[in-house]
Design a protein that fits this description.
Chain lengths: ~325, ~260
Amino acid sequence: MNAIRTTGLSKRYGETVAVDDLSVTVESGEVFGMLGPNGAGKSTLIGMLCTLSTPTDGEATVNGYDIRSERDAVRDSIGVVFQEPALDEELTAAENLAFHARMYGLSREERRERIGDLLDLVELADVADDPVGEYSGGMKRRLEIARGLIHEPEVLFLDEPTLGLDAQTRRATWRYIERMNDERGVTVVLTTHYMEEADHLCDRVAIVDDGNVIALDTPTTLKAQQGGDMLELGLEGDVVTLTARLEDTPWVESVTATDAGVQVALAGDRTRVPDVVRLADETGVTITAVEVHRPSLETVFLALTGNTIAEAAAEGKQ
Amino acid sequence: MSLLDPQAVYALWLRDVKRFVRTPSQVAGTLVFPLMFLVFLGTGFSDAALPGIPAGVEYIQYLVPGIVGFTMLFGASFAGLAILGAQDTGFLKEILVAPVSRTSIVLGWIAGGATTALIQGSLVFLIAIPLGFRVANPLLLPVVAVVLLLLAVTFVGFGVALASQFSDTQGFGLLIQFIVFPIFFLSGALFPLSELPAVAQYLGRVNPLTYGVDALRGALVGASTYPLALDVLALGVSAAVMVAVGAWLFGRVESV
């Protein structure tokens, strides 16, 4: 069964189209990422799928339930970690989890057992009785992820799960998300505007811009569509001969002259730096600088939209 | 999910009570106004003869039920502020995304807000005793409890209904000041309404606090304008209406 299926889903606020005729399917058990700049419509989409707002148009089901006519069944099936922290800072971690467990109708035994288990899992058992207001950003995030899982949802929504976290905490948070997905089989739908995050975590990534999904595939496939690595070479000597020899080589797609040397687009997925160095040596050309550019999801986004994610976000704010 | 989910109501109530008992400054803060009224008016007017107050009733006896009613109004209306606070911190989303009916959520808030308002009202009573307040008929204390409860439910419902129409705490806080004080002055809490212009008297008659204060006087001091049963009935109706309005308006809150 599909965890999520949307057909022609749209949300408009007056003249502004936040989500535009969106049709996507998320499969059960996968980690599905939505990558795009702030303002691309990711949070609006999550809001609709969580039943917090009503679509202007179109249909969607979550865990097989209609988000309009079966709101309560949808709410029962999902766990949500919002972009902004949504914890009661005056309560302790254990109390926040207990509140959640009661709201989801868990029995006393289930509540005690799961709170203990989850606090262990996210390594907050030692500070379970401290007020959440005293927690760091990373601890709050972990607590929220744990909370999203107490009622054993089928689908866990994570809206920018590592926004504002430092690099180390971000990596740790990734580990928890992976573990939840592996051990509990929960379908994870996350939004992010961090390339590495989408690349690292997601089985499939939807690239979202202006309320539309403009590409949807595994990160590997998306990157492969952009071709192989790009070598940026600084050269001194007989550049013309080297260019000709490179162009004759089967693993070179194209060679472009630059101010300092050449830019070599490679075919395939191997970085041929040693081969290029050998060729240059044979031609008597000195390599003064080498830079290797791997295609990233950023490259994919740039190729598809003509903008980097940062530019697109800046544009969206205007 | 059903229309009423007792466990969710309990969860919301428990949260409010825990937050309340953990912030003594808030408890003290909500008591400052009532106590100032009580101490300054109670002692300043102690020998004054106000027209409309039944003969033989000291001003402090007249004043205490009014100030207790005001405390309920003041404390309960700020329950609405707590909802907007939850919206500011994002916690409201956590509540709204749970598989719990909006009615249960509103009832949970009302239960929590009413409990904290009851505690505040009771504290004012206790403080009034050393100031010279005497309960005329202790047998009527259960009636006092019912009246306080109905008052709390009415005004928390009112706070919830108002809060559902606002998106920021500042505007709401200001509005509450503009609403709370007229309700207070038009309730006969400080002086009998009979001396006011006719328009103000009419407004006073549709004011739930009027009946609350009158019922408290009837039960505690033994002197009331209306029969006690009428007061309690009026309060029961206002509480039911406010809960319904609060639940209805809040049910329409879509996104946050």
